Structures are given as structure tokens and as C-alpha cells.
Amino acid sequence: MKNLYETYKAWIMLGVLAIIWGSSFILIKKGLVVFSSEEVAALRIASAGLFMAPMAFNRLRGLQKKDWLWLVVSGFTGSLIPAFLFTTAQTQLSSAITGVLNTTTPLFVLIVGVIVFKQAVVWRQTFGLVLGFLGSFVLILSGSGGLGDVNLYALLVILATLCYGSNLNLIKFRLSGLKPVTITSLSLGVFTLPLLVYLLGFSDLIFHLKNTAGASIALSYILLLGVVGTALALILFNKLVQLSSPIFTSSVTYLIPLVAMGWGFLDGEDLRLIHLLGMAIILSGVYITNRKKTKSQTIATPIEVQKTALDS
Fold first, then answer.
1. Percentage of the chain exceeding pLDDT 90
2. Which of 28, 143, 196, 243 lies 20 to 30 Å (CA to CA) from residue 153?
3. Strands (E), the chain
């Protein structure tokens, strides 16, 4: 009965996580209706940092000086830089396409692991990488006018997923002695105060809240993105990887773009056949790269690297 209960619990958690992360891109889009891309990104990280501040304060003891260096680097690569890249990209990209490009993260987990940390790779993973990036190039070369209409803003999403892939390897190889909640809360916390100073003293946040119609609604979308889509989602992901297998957890990679495309469709976004083709190619590449290895293989997949990093 316990195993059956845990199975149902894992499926429910997987579905909730897919809905939360898959909805992140439409929340960014709604926030950009009123606020600038910089304001949306800063609000997202600052709200997540404030929410996790109590957890951060409880985990300050026992940290070494070298941990602080890597926590700051982790905050930059895992949260701050991607947040600004995603919001800037979505000023010119639909939320659906951004959601699918986000699935290249496991590919960069493998690439950074191989190049920087000398992880081994097999031909199947190499083929999956090539296929995944081929799909990315299809989307980059498929702007609103169709194939050949280059949209360089898609490269910002690719750069963001490179940051994510680098951060997951960093957590595994440089912060393995810290708990996941410690890494998340402190890496967000180091940027919370500077971002609040920027928002309250140097941005147009207060002006928009006082004078722009719909500002309070847009703010609620961004706060939902920060608290639920960033802080709570990471906690939920940590619990899921502890409860289930890496292969099961990787299923969220394929569910996120489905949720993102669903929101895009409901919001009237224009998805062409060439866009769907690029999405299908990317997801095929991610699947091949992360397909469950046989007993004769000893090389970890990118999703397993993610699981090890976040569960350490």
C-alpha cells in the first residue's frame, strides 16, 4: 500500500510541477504587458528570495568561505542571468516557443559536464545532442514570417539554458556538501537586497503601480512566478527526485512544453507547422539523450546529473 501511495503521490507531484513550470512563460508574458523585462526579472528573483529568506537565515551556520563564492556563482548562473535572458527573449518570442527551447537544459548539462568536468559520453547521447540543437536552429530560423525569418532572441533562451546546465554541474562538483534548500535559498538570497534597491530606487515600478492600468494584476502574475514558479517549484522538484527515479523525474521535461503550448494556444499565440516541427525535433533529441541506459552502460544521463546535483 505504501508503494502504491508513493506512486500516486509521485504522479501528482509530477503533474503539479509540470503545470507550475509550464505556466512560467505565460506569467512572464502577462508581466511584460506593464513592466519592462528588467523589472519582471528583478521582481521574480527578489520575490523568490524574500519568500525563502527564513530558510536562508537558518542555514547560515557552518558555511565555509569557499561555499559563499560558489553560492554567488550558482545564483548568477542558475537564477539571476537566466531570469533576465528569459524576460528579454519573451519581448520578441511567444511563451510556447520559449517553453520548448527551455527543454534544451538537459543537453547543456551533458555538454558542460563533458567539456568542463570531463564526464564520459556515448554516441547515443551525442546523436541526441545534435538532434536537439537541430530543432533549436529550426526555431531560431523560424520567426513570425516562417522559415528563413531569423529570430535571434531565441539565442537568449539557449544562452539561459546553457547557464542552467552550467549551474547544475556546479552544484554537483562544487557544492555537493550542501543541502538543496540551502543552495537554493542562499543563492537567491545574495541578490535579493540589491534587486530590491534597484526596483524601489532606480526602476519605474512605483510609477507603474500608481499610474498604469492593470499594474497590480501584472504584479500578482510576477509574484506568483517568483514564489510558486521559482521557490516552491524548486522545493517540490527536490522532493520528487527523492521520491522517484531520475527517468521518471525527467518526464517533466516533456510535459512542460505541452503546458506552455496549451497556454499559448489559449492566449491566441500563432504557432506554425514549422514551429511544431522544431519542437518535435528538440523533444526527440532530449528523449534520446536521456533514454534509460542498459546494464552494460555506466554513463550517467543529463537528467541523472541533475538528480545527483539537486539531491546532494
1. 37
2. 196
3. 142-143, 146-147
